[in-house]
Amino acid sequence: MMQLFFMHVGSFVAVILYFTLAGRAEYSPAGVRAALLVALGIETAYIWLARRAGELKQFDAGLWALFAIGSLATSAGVRPVASLFEHYSPALLFTTLGLTAVVPPLLGREPFTYYYARRQTPPWQQRLPEFAAINRVMTGYWVLVFFTAAGLAASAPTDWRFTALFPNLLTFGAGMTATWWLPLVYLKLFPPELPTAIEPLLMGMPLAFDRKAAGDGRAVIQFRVSGAEAGDYHVRVEGGRCRSFAGPAPAPDLVVHTPDTVWIRIARGELDGGRALQDGLYRVEGDLAVLAKMDEWFTPPRGARRTG
């Protein structure tokens, strides 16, 4: 619950408070100055809390800078800057978000999306090259969303539809939903190679699962991996679904004992699985019918690059 607060809510408490106070004062110079000072105090306190919790993110710094610059300018009587806050606050907000998204990658730093992606994807996925690539694409998409929203707000600064309705519909509609569809589009356009490490290969087996071929089949398949990347993994097939887990299964139908390099070569098409079994490169225990069905149940996603 607290992580959800820091991810999606905490940064914008000061933002909501600022627009509420400034709006009540009809964006008068004194009202804007007071709202900025309050927002700066709230954002400073929030950053202290987020840092203590290990949840500090780039947006926090960007919003703090926005309120700090505004507070300094309005308090010092720098009218050109103060006037921007009085007339274009929504546009300044979305511009700040856009700059926070685009500047760190240009300086060789991580994009802001890493903070969210690391908290929403399993560790094994984060070690894939596609993780970095998709985050770069997602960042570029958000840059487009934020600056488009800023342009809408700046084009009609006195029309609530352009300062609030349309930019927020764009952000929450086209922006937030991209988490669900943009990675899928990217992977369809740029099919990844099969993994060269055993953990993502086995944990990613549900991505290669053919539910039609499996039908109503049921099985628990345990992999006991030896070698440099030794570990235990298992997949559970039932009800037309496949799920992967780290660790041993309590009652597997099939146990595959394999060196990591052997199973990687089999999966990538560099080694024939049947011949490798005959040659003793790996061994199995349990229901051999499940082993025979694995080629039907698990196939590389269409377009995935496979050697051999």
Written description of the protein model:
It is a single chain. The protein has 308 residues and is α+β, with helices and mostly antiparallel strands. It folds into two domains: 188 residues; 100 residues, Nonspecific Lipid-transfer Protein, Chain A, CATH 3.30.1050.10. Helix content is 62%, strand content 10%. It has a five-stranded mixed beta sheet. Helix 4 runs antiparallel to helix 5 and helix 5 runs antiparallel to helix 8. The longest helix is centred in the N-terminal third of the chain and has 28 residues. It is elongated, with a radius of gyration of 26 Å. The C terminus is likely disordered.
Write the layout of secondary structure elements.
Elements: H1 2-9, H2 13-24, H3 29-52, H4 58-76, H5 79-106, H6 113-120, H7 123-126, H8 129-155, H9 160-175, H10 178-189, H11 198-203, H12 211-214, E1 219-226, E2 231-238, E3 241-246, E4 254-259, H13 260-267, H14 273-278, E5 283-286, H15 288-297
Parallel strand pairs: 1-4
Antiparallel strand pairs: 1-2, 2-3, 4-5
Helix pairs in contact: 2-3, 3-4, 4-5, 5-8, 8-9, 8-10
